[in-house]
Amino acid sequence: MATLLKHSAKYALSGRLARLCVHSRHGGLQCLQPCLLPHQRSASTGSKILVEMDNSTGIAVLTMKSPPVNSLSLDFLTEFSISLEKLELDRGCRGVILTSALPKIFSAGLDIMEMCGKSPEHCGEFWKAVQEMWLRLYGSSMITIAAINGSSPAGGCLMALACDYRIMAENPKYSIGLNETQLGIVAPFWFKDTLVNTVGNRVAELSLQLGLLYSAPDALRTGLVDLLVPEDKVLSTASQTMTQWLAIPGENAIGSNPRVSSSKVDLTPKVHMVDLSHSSESMCSLNWIPWTCSNRA
Ligand SMILES: CCCC/C=C/CC(=O)SCCNC(=O)CCNC(=O)[C@H](O)C(C)(C)COP(=O)(O)OP(=O)(O)OC[C@H]1O[C@@H](n2cnc3c(N)ncnc32)[C@H](O)[C@@H]1OP(=O)(O)O
Asked: Pfam families in the record, alphabetically (predicted)?
């Protein structure tokens, strides 16, 4: 029981993670959920995001649950940023796993309908929300791991890239990448910089110029994701990886307690990359919005 309780403390999360099973000392599989004490976990859900927090480990699972494809609408982005901000303010939260509740899809990226025939004001508000999402995720003082359990094109890939580590389901049918060029859009330079930081200049150059979507195995080969695991292991592997990251002493680790360690992170260059006015203007002036709509001429 002591071993099991220790495992429970390590993985104890309500909902998805709490349903994980571990091998007990006696060799059998045991479900962790019955061992959890109610005070160890909490869950909050909006219409598009479920947040499950395990207070004993400091790990939260943020699950996107906006059918059909977790597209990043203004409502979605607002709920996402608020959820992340709440976790950021919760000093007990040290790590966030980002995943999807939808089969086969992590996120389809920016919601195309948000930008179809909308006013420049709406585009500006929407674009600001996109940047807010990226800043919150990329600049988070918590450890962030993307548990990519489905396809993740364009803005969905950006979300994953903004995390510290990416674990993807090893399903060759799933794809990930910044494919904006294929849609006739130029990915903003901070999308590009986020990609360059992960895969290096040459791979980023080819990816962006050709708008490449990589299959899961190719994404691993290029370094776009860090690890492939069987689909049913994505979340449990993310949890185990998070535990390893959180074991790094606080003085050296972003997101480890005490959270003051985050003050050592200089976000200035990252924040400088964001040019709000330019991005929202270009989004409206590029004429790509009608291009992506089915009623285009
Ligand atoms: C200067 C500005 C730069 C801005 C940069 C842009 C970044 C972006 O993120 S732009 C968005 C790019 N996204 C994509 O290219 C993804 C497009 N979608 C797909 O490839 C597929 O839909 C996907 C692989 C995600 C899922 O495939 P399926 O499982 O086969 O589903 P369907 O294709 O049938 O789609 C179901 C349903 O969802 C709607 N959908 C899909 N993507 C989006 C989206 N991005 N926004 C809004 N809605 C989306 C699709 O139209 C279907 O709707 P219904 O027909 O009503 O069922």
From this structure: ECH_1 (PF00378)
